[in-house]
């Protein structure tokens, strides 16, 4: 699914109005109408007090249209104009007039001088104060209103985006954002819905299709995409009946050290479950027995030393894809081995954990990393690789520039893992906090390596791998719960994640 920028949303709005030869207020009427349908479906005429807070821009206009529908349908509504600016926009004014024409209870105008209204926990609050147009810090009295809404314990429904949330920067000290129970966003999700500093405000949300011009939406390329089941289905290649293991590639997982063999065991097993025809693990001698006992399906290769860490990386396996890093450590002998290894590589590979740390500490090695290699850092590893950042948006910009400069793919792991290549961002839509457990990153490395070995393009392997990893965890928590989930369980559910691609949605239960 495409995620549009603010400029693209405004453009879509303009083009839709032009194409339909309708005044832009009609789009606002449509948006407000859909908001009303959503609310009405849930309240069914109930007399709960509804407080609609409207700004003076188009977001406020949407709120005004909703308020008018609520008034016309005899709901118990009080409407407020949060008059934060003298520049009331024309469509807002029109919607405001239309509301005033249907009721004697005109909206209450709030300014800096006003006493803010009491909001009780039984109220429903509609937050239509700021939408995607917020571009500077609101005045203190407006922030006080946001705080009062948040402190009220009322059910808060935000229109389009929680007021106070910016489209292009994370909150800073002193910023206040409305914390809604639900957000109804128009047409498509927005980037901040997925970023660590702002996603916690999006506890629950849905998209309202307000009919922006489908042609414009379809043909406009976006810098950001959301990757879910539909996108992964397009990349998936099914197997034919006469397939044999030689057709699905040989994965080589390099890593492990004394006390950290589990990481490479997990990665190797995950590569098998992801469908790699064969898997070999290249580990220090100390780890061979552990690996062979844990995973009879996986072959082992080892170095010619007898230490606790890898001291050389020299293998016979003719691998279709290599994943390096899990449990490997950063011993100086291993660093030397990685240097030698990287200089000999030509094909894209998966670079994780200590392999990232080694490259971060020896940036000259980057020039030997094959193009389109996939780095899978968590935020700590990413910072070592690219340096610090100001906020979530700055991190995305710096990471995508770094990936572009070195022609690599970077998978930024987190609650919403974001993959970047060629200045584009791909946000993953699967996964849950059950994955916040030791070893789940190692599993991801194995899955991506296994997909790469099967001949998927590195971008497909990265996006599909991240999706399947998260989806497997989503299915697994039905059995293990979020707290109970372990990395090894995710591997056991990878097959189910594949099957789920084509699973029919459950039939609704008979009444
Ligand atoms: N486009 C679409 O497809 C559709 C959009 N729709 C709706 O429109 C919403 C976007 O509307 P919007 O552009 O009018 O912006 P909104 O958030 O209402 O802010 C109003 C203005 O406030 C100003 N301002 C900013 N920060 C400020 C501050 N701190 N303190 C004081 N003032 C501040 C700033 O103007 P400025 O003063 O910078 O000129 C800004 O323009 C969108 O979220 C959705 O709900 C739907 O109707 C249907 C289709
Ligand atoms: N709250 C969360 N929601 C969804 N996925 C998560 C969450 N926390 C962690 N993950 C995922 O779990 C994995 C953790 O990887 P990593 O930090 O490398 O763990 P480890 O080093 O223990 O293997 C990543 O794929 C990350 O995206
Ligand atoms: K809002």
Structure description:
The chain folds into two domains: 2-222, Rossmann fold (3-Layer(aba) Sandwich), CATH 3.40.50.10260; 231-237 and 244-501, UDP-N-acetylmuramoyl-L-alanine:D-glutamate ligase (3-Layer(aba) Sandwich), CATH 3.40.1190.20. An eleven-stranded mixed sheet has the order 1-9-18-17-16-15-14-13-10-11-12, with helices on both faces. It has a seven-stranded parallel sheet with strand order 4-3-2-5-6-7-8, with helices on both faces. With 511 residues, it is α/β, with parallel strands linked by helices. The protein is built from 17 helices and 18 strands. Residues 9-10, 12-13, 27-28, 31, 55, 57-62, 84-85, 87, 89, 130-138, 159-161, 186, 210, 212 line the site of ligand NPW.
In short:
This protein is an alpha/beta fold. It contains 17 helices and 18 strands.
Structural class: alpha/beta
Name the CATH superfamily classification of the largest domain. Answer: Ribokinase
Number of helices: 17
Major sheet: size, sense and barrel closure?
11 strands, mixed
Task: Assign a percent range to the helix content.
Answer: 25-40%
Q: What percent strand?
A: 5-15%
> How many domains make up the coordinates?
2
From the 3D structure, determine the CATH topology of the largest domain. UDP-N-acetylmuramoyl-L-alanine:D-glutamate ligase
